[in-house]
Every structure is written in structure tokens, then in C-alpha cells.
Amino acid sequence: MTFVMPDGSRREVDAQPGETLLAIAQRHGIAELEGACEGAMACSTCHVVVETEWFSKIPEPSEDEDDMLDFAYGLALTSRLGCQIEFKPELDGLVVRVPSQRFNALLD
Ligand code: FES
Prior knowledge:
Layout: E1 2-4, E2 10-12, H1 21-27, E3 47-50, H2 52-55, H3 63-69, E4 79-81, E5 95-97
Parallel strand pairs: 1-5
Antiparallel strand pairs: 1-2, 3-4, 3-5
Bound molecules: FE2/S2 (inorganic) cluster.
């Protein structure tokens, strides 16, 4: 899968089924996806914008995820929390964009 970084560069990384996008990013040292609450849906620092063509292949967000996304900077129609998306074989080739700004509800 590929993370498109805030500067436009692309990081193509390997991903294992069952890993969240946040865990994948952390394993590859992508610090821009901070994950301050470690997946507790309390920060929105794992906000990613899913490329449109992939969005429908990802299960819908829970109400709690939707609520936390309301705090994310640069919210888009295909915004999701990286800690809530589990990679699966059907997502091979997935592309998500890492927004340039993040909101940490734990701090701000
Ligand atoms: S890591 Fe905090 S909401 Fe995803």
C-alpha cells in the first residue's frame, strides 16, 4: 500500500492482513501519522484521506469514528481514522493521503 505524504512524496510499504493503517505506518517509521491515543479513538492524529477509488472497499466507519473525525483538520469526504482501518488482501494497492495538519484532541 502507499502513503502519500504531506509534501506529495509517496511511501510504498508492505502491509499484513489484520494490521491497522496506523500500525503499518508506525512499523515503517511514518511519524506524520502520530496515533497519539494508540487507537482509542480519542485524538484523530491518525487521520488519513483515502483515495476515492478505494473508499468503497473499506467497511463503513462506526459512529464513534465519525464523531472523532469531526475534529480532524482538512476533513474530506473520504476521510478515515487510520487506527480503525484493518488491512486485508482486497486492499492490496491501497492509497491514502496523510494530511499536512493534524488535530490532537488529547492536547488541543
Ligand atoms: S490513534 Fe487516536 S484516533 Fe486513531
